[in-house]
Amino acid sequence: MANPALNFPKELRNKILFTLGMLAIYRLGVHVPVPGVDPKLVMEFFQAQSSGIFGLFNTFTGGALERFSVFALGIMPYISASIIFQLLQTAVPYLEQLKKEGEQGRKKINQYTRYATIVLAVVQGYAMSTFLLTSSHNEQSLVTVQSFGGLFSFRFMSIMTLVAGTCFIMWLGEQITERGIGNGASLIIFTGIAAGIPHGAVQMFQMIGAGELSGFVAFIIVALMVLVIGLIIFLEVGQRRIPVHYSQKAATQSGMTQTPTSHLPLKINFSNVIPPIFASSLLMFPATMAQFIDKPWMRELSQSLSPTGSIYNVLFVGLIVFFCFFYTEIVFNPVEVSDNLKKYGGFVPGVRAGKSTADYIKRVLDRLTVAGAIYLSAICILPTILVSAFKVPFYFGGTSLLILVGVALDTSQQIQSHLLTAKYEGLMKGVKVKSRRVQY
Protein backbone atom coordinates (compact mmCIF):
# COMPACT_ATOMS: atom_id res chain seq x y z
CA MET A 1 0.00 0.00 0.00
CA ALA A 2 1.40 3.42 -0.95
CA ASN A 3 2.34 5.82 1.78
CA PRO A 4 -0.20 8.71 1.74
CA ALA A 5 2.58 11.10 2.75
CA LEU A 6 4.25 10.52 -0.61
CA ASN A 7 1.14 11.39 -2.68
CA PHE A 8 1.11 14.57 -4.72
CA PRO A 9 -0.41 17.21 -2.39
CA LYS A 10 -3.75 18.65 -3.51
CA GLU A 11 -2.74 22.23 -2.65
CA LEU A 12 0.34 22.05 -4.86
CA ARG A 13 -1.68 20.49 -7.69
CA ASN A 14 -4.18 23.36 -7.50
CA LYS A 15 -1.37 25.92 -7.54
CA ILE A 16 0.20 24.36 -10.63
CA LEU A 17 -3.16 24.13 -12.45
CA PHE A 18 -3.92 27.76 -11.59
CA THR A 19 -0.52 28.84 -12.89
CA LEU A 20 -0.98 26.91 -16.13
CA GLY A 21 -4.44 28.44 -16.57
CA MET A 22 -3.11 32.00 -16.18
CA LEU A 23 -0.28 31.30 -18.62
CA ALA A 24 -2.78 29.87 -21.12
CA ILE A 25 -4.79 33.11 -20.93
CA TYR A 26 -1.59 35.04 -21.61
CA ARG A 27 -0.79 32.92 -24.67
CA LEU A 28 -4.32 33.44 -26.01
CA GLY A 29 -3.93 37.22 -25.72
CA VAL A 30 -0.74 37.08 -27.76
CA HIS A 31 -2.85 36.19 -30.83
CA VAL A 32 -5.33 39.09 -30.47
CA PRO A 33 -4.17 41.96 -32.74
CA VAL A 34 -4.52 45.65 -31.95
CA PRO A 35 -7.48 47.19 -33.83
CA GLY A 36 -6.60 49.11 -36.97
CA VAL A 37 -3.67 47.04 -38.28
CA ASP A 38 -3.39 44.44 -41.02
CA PRO A 39 -2.25 41.34 -39.04
CA LYS A 40 -0.87 39.51 -42.08
CA LEU A 41 1.18 42.46 -43.34
CA VAL A 42 2.44 43.29 -39.84
CA MET A 43 3.66 39.72 -39.31
CA GLU A 44 5.41 39.63 -42.70
CA PHE A 45 7.02 43.01 -41.96
CA PHE A 46 8.40 42.04 -38.54
CA GLN A 47 9.56 38.64 -39.77
CA ALA A 48 11.59 40.47 -42.41
CA GLN A 49 13.13 42.55 -39.61
CA SER A 50 13.74 39.56 -37.30
CA SER A 51 17.53 39.74 -37.59
CA GLY A 52 17.61 43.17 -35.98
CA ILE A 53 16.50 44.69 -32.73
CA PHE A 54 12.88 43.66 -33.35
CA GLY A 55 13.80 39.98 -33.34
CA LEU A 56 15.35 40.35 -29.89
CA PHE A 57 12.34 42.22 -28.51
CA ASN A 58 9.92 39.78 -30.17
CA THR A 59 11.61 36.92 -28.31
CA PHE A 60 10.83 38.48 -24.92
CA THR A 61 7.19 39.11 -25.89
CA GLY A 62 6.65 35.54 -27.06
CA GLY A 63 5.80 36.51 -30.65
CA ALA A 64 3.33 39.22 -29.60
CA LEU A 65 5.32 41.98 -31.31
CA GLU A 66 5.30 40.42 -34.78
CA ARG A 67 1.52 40.12 -34.51
CA PHE A 68 1.24 43.59 -32.91
CA SER A 69 -1.19 42.05 -30.44
CA VAL A 70 -2.67 43.63 -27.34
CA PHE A 71 0.30 42.13 -25.44
CA ALA A 72 2.91 43.52 -27.86
CA LEU A 73 4.74 45.37 -25.06
CA GLY A 74 4.81 42.24 -22.93
CA ILE A 75 5.71 42.55 -19.27
CA MET A 76 9.04 44.27 -19.94
CA PRO A 77 7.79 47.74 -18.80
CA TYR A 78 6.94 46.20 -15.43
CA ILE A 79 10.27 44.39 -15.23
CA SER A 80 12.16 47.58 -16.09
CA ALA A 81 10.22 49.60 -13.50
CA SER A 82 10.82 46.92 -10.84
CA ILE A 83 14.56 46.89 -11.45
CA ILE A 84 14.73 50.69 -11.42
CA PHE A 85 12.95 50.91 -8.07
CA GLN A 86 15.08 48.10 -6.67
CA LEU A 87 18.17 50.16 -7.44
CA LEU A 88 16.58 53.39 -6.19
CA GLN A 89 15.86 51.80 -2.80
CA THR A 90 19.55 52.09 -1.97
CA ALA A 91 20.00 55.57 -3.44
CA VAL A 92 16.82 57.46 -2.39
CA PRO A 93 16.41 57.85 1.42
CA TYR A 94 12.60 57.89 1.22
CA LEU A 95 12.46 54.56 -0.65
CA GLU A 96 15.10 53.11 1.67
CA GLN A 97 12.93 54.03 4.65
CA LEU A 98 9.89 52.43 3.00
CA LYS A 99 11.90 49.26 2.48
CA LYS A 100 12.60 49.07 6.24
CA GLU A 101 8.91 49.46 7.16
CA GLY A 102 8.11 45.88 6.18
CA GLU A 103 4.88 44.85 4.48
CA GLN A 104 3.33 48.35 4.36
CA GLY A 105 6.46 49.85 2.83
CA ARG A 106 6.65 47.05 0.28
CA LYS A 107 3.06 47.70 -0.80
CA LYS A 108 3.84 51.39 -1.24
CA ILE A 109 6.90 50.62 -3.39
CA ASN A 110 4.82 48.19 -5.48
CA GLN A 111 2.28 50.96 -6.03
CA TYR A 112 4.99 53.34 -7.28
CA THR A 113 6.30 50.53 -9.51
CA ARG A 114 2.87 50.15 -11.13
CA TYR A 115 2.69 53.88 -11.83
CA ALA A 116 6.15 53.78 -13.42
CA THR A 117 5.05 50.77 -15.50
CA ILE A 118 2.16 52.75 -16.96
CA VAL A 119 4.45 55.67 -17.82
CA LEU A 120 6.95 53.39 -19.56
CA ALA A 121 4.14 51.58 -21.40
CA VAL A 122 2.71 54.90 -22.68
CA VAL A 123 6.12 55.99 -24.00
CA GLN A 124 6.81 52.64 -25.67
CA GLY A 125 3.25 52.42 -27.02
CA TYR A 126 3.59 55.84 -28.62
CA ALA A 127 6.91 54.87 -30.19
CA MET A 128 5.51 51.61 -31.60
CA SER A 129 2.34 53.21 -33.00
CA THR A 130 4.40 55.97 -34.63
CA PHE A 131 6.73 53.38 -36.12
CA LEU A 132 3.84 51.45 -37.66
CA LEU A 133 2.32 54.60 -39.13
CA THR A 134 5.59 55.47 -40.88
CA SER A 135 6.34 51.92 -42.10
CA SER A 136 5.08 49.86 -45.01
CA HIS A 137 5.56 46.39 -46.48
CA ASN A 138 5.56 45.79 -50.24
CA GLU A 139 4.40 49.38 -50.66
CA GLN A 140 1.31 48.65 -48.58
CA SER A 141 0.46 50.49 -45.36
CA LEU A 142 0.47 48.39 -42.18
CA VAL A 143 -2.31 50.47 -40.67
CA THR A 144 -5.89 50.76 -41.92
CA VAL A 145 -6.30 54.33 -40.63
CA GLN A 146 -9.55 54.92 -42.49
CA SER A 147 -11.49 52.83 -40.00
CA PHE A 148 -10.42 55.16 -37.19
CA GLY A 149 -10.89 58.48 -38.90
CA GLY A 150 -7.26 59.59 -38.91
CA LEU A 151 -3.74 59.16 -37.58
CA PHE A 152 -4.47 60.59 -34.14
CA SER A 153 -7.36 58.20 -33.55
CA PHE A 154 -5.20 55.17 -34.38
CA ARG A 155 -2.31 56.39 -32.25
CA PHE A 156 -4.59 57.04 -29.27
CA MET A 157 -6.38 53.70 -29.65
CA SER A 158 -3.14 51.71 -30.00
CA ILE A 159 -1.53 53.38 -26.97
CA MET A 160 -4.58 52.71 -24.79
CA THR A 161 -4.77 49.10 -25.99
CA LEU A 162 -1.07 48.40 -25.42
CA VAL A 163 -1.07 50.00 -21.97
CA ALA A 164 -4.18 48.03 -21.00
CA GLY A 165 -2.51 44.84 -22.25
CA THR A 166 0.60 45.51 -20.16
CA CYS A 167 -1.51 46.22 -17.07
CA PHE A 168 -3.45 42.97 -17.60
CA ILE A 169 -0.21 40.99 -17.93
CA MET A 170 1.07 42.67 -14.76
CA TRP A 171 -2.13 41.59 -12.98
CA LEU A 172 -1.74 38.03 -14.29
CA GLY A 173 1.82 37.93 -12.94
CA GLU A 174 0.73 39.13 -9.50
CA GLN A 175 -2.06 36.53 -9.38
CA ILE A 176 0.40 33.75 -10.25
CA THR A 177 2.81 34.93 -7.54
CA GLU A 178 0.08 35.08 -4.87
CA ARG A 179 -2.07 32.06 -5.76
CA GLY A 180 0.10 29.94 -8.02
CA ILE A 181 3.63 28.57 -7.99
CA GLY A 182 6.78 30.52 -8.82
CA ASN A 183 7.28 34.18 -9.67
CA GLY A 184 4.50 35.35 -11.99
CA ALA A 185 6.43 37.95 -13.99
CA SER A 186 9.34 35.58 -14.54
CA LEU A 187 7.06 32.74 -15.62
CA ILE A 188 5.32 34.98 -18.16
CA ILE A 189 8.67 35.85 -19.75
CA PHE A 190 9.66 32.16 -19.54
CA THR A 191 6.46 31.15 -21.36
CA GLY A 192 7.01 33.71 -24.11
CA ILE A 193 10.58 32.58 -24.72
CA ALA A 194 9.76 28.87 -24.51
CA ALA A 195 6.95 29.30 -27.06
CA GLY A 196 9.55 29.89 -29.78
CA ILE A 197 11.50 26.68 -29.10
CA PRO A 198 9.27 24.31 -31.16
CA HIS A 199 9.40 26.66 -34.16
CA GLY A 200 13.20 26.77 -33.97
CA ALA A 201 13.40 22.96 -33.78
CA VAL A 202 11.15 22.62 -36.82
CA GLN A 203 13.33 25.09 -38.75
CA MET A 204 16.43 23.07 -37.93
CA PHE A 205 14.86 19.82 -39.17
CA GLN A 206 13.72 21.57 -42.34
CA MET A 207 17.26 22.83 -42.98
CA ILE A 208 18.64 19.31 -42.46
CA GLY A 209 16.05 17.88 -44.87
CA ALA A 210 16.84 20.52 -47.48
CA GLY A 211 20.60 19.91 -47.19
CA GLU A 212 21.31 23.42 -45.89
CA LEU A 213 22.61 21.97 -42.60
CA SER A 214 24.47 18.67 -42.26
CA GLY A 215 23.43 16.13 -39.66
CA PHE A 216 26.88 16.17 -38.05
CA VAL A 217 26.79 19.95 -37.57
CA ALA A 218 23.27 19.65 -36.14
CA PHE A 219 24.52 17.02 -33.68
CA ILE A 220 27.40 19.30 -32.64
CA ILE A 221 24.95 22.19 -32.12
CA VAL A 222 22.62 20.08 -29.97
CA ALA A 223 25.56 18.76 -27.93
CA LEU A 224 26.79 22.33 -27.46
CA MET A 225 23.34 23.38 -26.28
CA VAL A 226 23.24 20.62 -23.67
CA LEU A 227 26.75 21.53 -22.51
CA VAL A 228 25.92 25.24 -22.24
CA ILE A 229 22.70 24.57 -20.30
CA GLY A 230 24.59 22.29 -17.91
CA LEU A 231 27.28 24.94 -17.44
CA ILE A 232 24.66 27.62 -16.71
CA ILE A 233 22.95 25.42 -14.12
CA PHE A 234 26.31 24.68 -12.48
CA LEU A 235 27.29 28.34 -12.29
CA GLU A 236 23.86 29.61 -11.24
CA VAL A 237 23.74 27.32 -8.19
CA GLY A 238 27.47 27.69 -7.50
CA GLN A 239 28.57 29.52 -4.35
CA ARG A 240 31.75 30.70 -2.72
CA ARG A 241 31.22 29.91 0.94
CA ILE A 242 33.22 32.03 3.38
CA PRO A 243 33.49 30.12 6.72
CA VAL A 244 32.16 31.97 9.75
CA HIS A 245 32.82 30.96 13.37
CA TYR A 246 31.12 32.32 16.46
CA SER A 247 32.83 33.03 19.73
CA GLN A 248 32.28 30.84 22.79
CA LYS A 249 30.53 33.75 24.52
CA ALA A 250 28.00 34.07 21.71
CA ALA A 251 27.44 30.32 21.76
CA THR A 252 26.83 30.37 25.53
CA GLN A 253 24.35 33.25 25.25
CA SER A 254 22.40 31.36 22.59
CA GLY A 255 22.28 28.20 24.74
CA MET A 256 24.70 26.13 22.65
CA THR A 257 27.27 23.87 24.25
CA GLN A 258 29.68 23.97 21.32
CA THR A 259 31.12 26.78 19.25
CA PRO A 260 28.82 26.99 16.20
CA THR A 261 30.17 27.30 12.69
CA SER A 262 28.40 28.64 9.65
CA HIS A 263 29.24 30.17 6.30
CA LEU A 264 28.53 33.28 4.25
CA PRO A 265 27.34 32.19 0.77
CA LEU A 266 28.32 34.41 -2.16
CA LYS A 267 26.94 33.53 -5.60
CA ILE A 268 29.20 33.51 -8.63
CA ASN A 269 26.53 35.35 -10.61
CA PHE A 270 25.38 37.71 -7.87
CA SER A 271 23.45 40.07 -10.18
CA ASN A 272 21.53 37.34 -12.07
CA VAL A 273 20.08 38.58 -15.41
CA ILE A 274 19.88 42.26 -14.43
CA PRO A 275 23.11 43.36 -16.24
CA PRO A 276 22.06 41.87 -19.63
CA ILE A 277 18.54 43.34 -19.29
CA PHE A 278 19.90 46.80 -18.44
CA ALA A 279 22.53 46.61 -21.18
CA SER A 280 20.06 45.52 -23.86
CA SER A 281 17.58 48.21 -22.73
CA LEU A 282 20.21 50.91 -23.15
CA LEU A 283 21.22 49.62 -26.57
CA MET A 284 17.54 49.53 -27.61
CA PHE A 285 17.20 53.18 -26.63
CA PRO A 286 18.59 54.59 -29.94
CA ALA A 287 16.14 52.41 -31.89
CA THR A 288 13.30 53.81 -29.78
CA MET A 289 14.46 57.42 -30.08
CA ALA A 290 14.77 57.03 -33.85
CA GLN A 291 10.97 56.94 -33.94
CA PHE A 292 10.83 60.38 -32.29
CA ILE A 293 13.85 62.06 -33.92
CA ASP A 294 13.60 61.78 -37.69
CA LYS A 295 17.21 62.66 -38.43
CA PRO A 296 19.69 60.82 -40.68
CA TRP A 297 22.35 60.57 -37.95
CA MET A 298 19.84 59.01 -35.53
CA ARG A 299 18.74 56.45 -38.12
CA GLU A 300 22.39 55.57 -38.86
CA LEU A 301 23.09 55.18 -35.13
CA SER A 302 20.08 52.91 -34.76
CA GLN A 303 21.11 50.77 -37.74
CA SER A 304 24.72 50.47 -36.55
CA LEU A 305 23.54 49.02 -33.23
CA SER A 306 22.17 45.84 -34.77
CA PRO A 307 22.34 42.76 -32.46
CA THR A 308 24.34 40.90 -35.10
CA GLY A 309 26.95 43.65 -35.48
CA SER A 310 30.36 43.81 -33.83
CA ILE A 311 29.78 47.31 -32.43
CA TYR A 312 26.66 46.14 -30.63
CA ASN A 313 28.43 43.14 -29.09
CA VAL A 314 31.45 45.17 -27.92
CA LEU A 315 29.19 47.73 -26.25
CA PHE A 316 26.99 44.93 -24.91
CA VAL A 317 29.90 43.21 -23.18
CA GLY A 318 31.19 46.51 -21.77
CA LEU A 319 27.79 47.41 -20.34
CA ILE A 320 27.33 43.93 -18.86
CA VAL A 321 30.65 44.20 -17.01
CA PHE A 322 29.77 47.70 -15.79
CA PHE A 323 26.32 46.73 -14.51
CA CYS A 324 27.67 43.58 -12.84
CA PHE A 325 29.91 45.70 -10.62
CA PHE A 326 27.38 48.54 -10.33
CA TYR A 327 24.51 46.30 -9.18
CA THR A 328 26.70 44.30 -6.79
CA GLU A 329 28.11 47.50 -5.28
CA ILE A 330 24.63 48.89 -4.64
CA VAL A 331 22.90 45.76 -3.36
CA PHE A 332 25.65 44.13 -1.27
CA ASN A 333 27.45 46.12 1.43
CA PRO A 334 30.52 44.29 2.87
CA VAL A 335 30.88 46.85 5.69
CA GLU A 336 27.33 46.19 6.85
CA VAL A 337 27.85 42.42 6.69
CA SER A 338 31.08 42.75 8.69
CA ASP A 339 29.36 44.89 11.34
CA ASN A 340 26.55 42.35 11.68
CA LEU A 341 29.03 39.50 12.11
CA LYS A 342 30.88 41.47 14.78
CA LYS A 343 27.64 42.37 16.53
CA TYR A 344 26.61 38.72 16.90
CA GLY A 345 30.06 37.44 17.80
CA GLY A 346 30.93 36.02 14.37
CA PHE A 347 34.30 36.16 12.66
CA VAL A 348 36.11 34.78 9.62
CA PRO A 349 38.95 32.48 10.70
CA GLY A 350 42.34 34.14 10.21
CA VAL A 351 40.84 37.59 9.57
CA ARG A 352 40.46 40.33 12.16
CA ALA A 353 36.94 41.56 12.84
CA GLY A 354 35.80 44.94 11.54
CA LYS A 355 37.49 46.65 8.60
CA SER A 356 39.76 43.69 7.78
CA THR A 357 36.74 41.40 7.46
CA ALA A 358 34.96 43.94 5.24
CA ASP A 359 38.04 44.24 3.01
CA TYR A 360 38.35 40.46 2.79
CA ILE A 361 34.69 40.02 1.82
CA LYS A 362 35.01 42.86 -0.71
CA ARG A 363 38.08 41.25 -2.28
CA VAL A 364 36.36 37.86 -2.61
CA LEU A 365 33.23 39.50 -4.01
CA ASP A 366 35.21 41.46 -6.63
CA ARG A 367 36.86 38.28 -7.87
CA LEU A 368 33.49 36.53 -8.09
CA THR A 369 32.03 39.51 -9.94
CA VAL A 370 34.82 39.33 -12.53
CA ALA A 371 34.08 35.63 -13.08
CA GLY A 372 30.34 36.33 -13.22
CA ALA A 373 30.79 39.15 -15.74
CA ILE A 374 32.89 36.91 -18.01
CA TYR A 375 30.29 34.16 -17.74
CA LEU A 376 27.37 36.50 -18.55
CA SER A 377 29.23 38.11 -21.45
CA ALA A 378 30.08 34.74 -23.00
CA ILE A 379 26.48 33.52 -22.78
CA CYS A 380 25.05 36.78 -24.15
CA ILE A 381 27.24 36.89 -27.28
CA LEU A 382 26.76 33.16 -27.94
CA PRO A 383 23.73 33.72 -30.27
CA THR A 384 25.78 35.95 -32.59
CA ILE A 385 28.53 33.32 -32.82
CA LEU A 386 26.08 30.49 -33.57
CA VAL A 387 24.13 32.48 -36.17
CA SER A 388 27.22 33.77 -38.01
CA ALA A 389 29.41 30.64 -37.77
CA PHE A 390 26.92 27.73 -37.87
CA LYS A 391 23.93 29.46 -39.53
CA VAL A 392 21.65 28.36 -36.69
CA PRO A 393 18.07 29.36 -37.67
CA PHE A 394 17.19 30.55 -34.16
CA TYR A 395 18.76 32.40 -31.24
CA PHE A 396 20.29 30.18 -28.57
CA GLY A 397 21.92 31.82 -25.60
CA GLY A 398 21.83 35.36 -24.38
CA THR A 399 19.46 36.81 -21.82
CA SER A 400 16.64 34.52 -22.97
CA LEU A 401 18.57 31.35 -22.09
CA LEU A 402 19.62 32.77 -18.71
CA ILE A 403 15.98 33.58 -17.96
CA LEU A 404 14.80 30.12 -19.05
CA VAL A 405 17.30 28.27 -16.84
CA GLY A 406 16.98 30.67 -13.91
CA VAL A 407 13.17 30.57 -13.82
CA ALA A 408 13.12 26.78 -14.25
CA LEU A 409 15.53 26.36 -11.32
CA ASP A 410 13.58 28.75 -9.09
CA THR A 411 10.21 27.15 -9.90
CA SER A 412 11.52 23.60 -9.42
CA GLN A 413 12.98 24.58 -6.05
CA GLN A 414 9.61 25.94 -4.94
CA ILE A 415 7.87 22.75 -6.06
CA GLN A 416 10.41 20.64 -4.17
CA SER A 417 9.89 22.82 -1.10
CA HIS A 418 6.12 22.21 -1.22
CA LEU A 419 6.67 18.47 -1.68
CA LEU A 420 9.07 18.28 1.27
CA THR A 421 6.66 20.25 3.47
CA ALA A 422 3.77 17.96 2.52
CA LYS A 423 5.92 14.88 3.13
CA TYR A 424 7.00 16.16 6.54
CA GLU A 425 3.41 16.94 7.53
CA GLY A 426 2.31 13.48 6.37
CA LEU A 427 5.04 11.79 8.41
CA MET A 428 4.10 13.80 11.49
CA LYS A 429 0.47 12.75 11.11
CA GLY A 430 1.60 9.13 10.85
CA VAL A 431 3.66 9.47 14.03
CA LYS A 432 0.66 10.95 15.89
CA VAL A 433 -1.60 8.09 14.74
CA LYS A 434 0.93 5.46 15.90
CA SER A 435 1.37 7.17 19.27
CA ARG A 436 -2.39 7.15 19.81
CA ARG A 437 -2.55 3.43 18.99
CA VAL A 438 0.22 2.70 21.51
CA GLN A 439 -1.62 4.66 24.22
CA TYR A 440 -4.82 2.78 23.45
Structure, explained:
With about 450 residues, the chain is mainly α. The chain is about 70% helix and about 5% strand. It is built from 19 helices and five strands. A three-stranded antiparallel β-sheet has the order 4-3-5. The protein is globular, with a radius of gyration of 26 Å.
Strand content: under 5%
Helical stretch tally: 19
- The total strand number stands at 5
Cα(first) to Cα(last) distance is 24 Å
Which sequence of strands runs across the widest sheet? 4-3-5
CATH level 3 topology of the largest domain: Preprotein translocase SecY subunit
Could you name the CATH class of the largest domain?
Mainly Alpha
| Weakly predicted, low-confidence segments | 1-6
Tell me the structural class.
Answer: mainly alpha
Helical fraction equals over 70%
Q: Please, what is the average pLDDT?
A: 80
Q: Can you describe this structure in just a few lines?
A:
By secondary structure, this protein is mainly α. It has helices spanning 10-29, 39-48, 53-60, 64-67, 76-88, 93-100, 103-133, 151-179, 184-194, 197-209, 215-237, 248-253, 274-289, 296-304, 310-331, 334-343, 355-380, 382-390, 398-439, and strands at residues 136-137, 140-141, 239-246, 261-267, 346-347.
SSE arrangement:
Elements: H1 10-29, H2 39-48, H3 53-60, H4 64-67, H5 76-88, H6 93-100, H7 103-133, E1 136-137, E2 140-141, H8 151-179, H9 184-194, H10 197-209, H11 215-237, E3 239-246, H12 248-253, E4 261-267, H13 274-289, H14 296-304, H15 310-331, H16 334-343, E5 346-347, H17 355-380, H18 382-390, H19 398-439
Antiparallel strand pairs: 1-2, 3-4, 3-5
Helix pairs in contact: 1-8, 1-9, 5-7, 6-7, 7-8, 8-9, 9-19, 11-19, 13-14, 13-15, 15-17, 16-17, 17-19
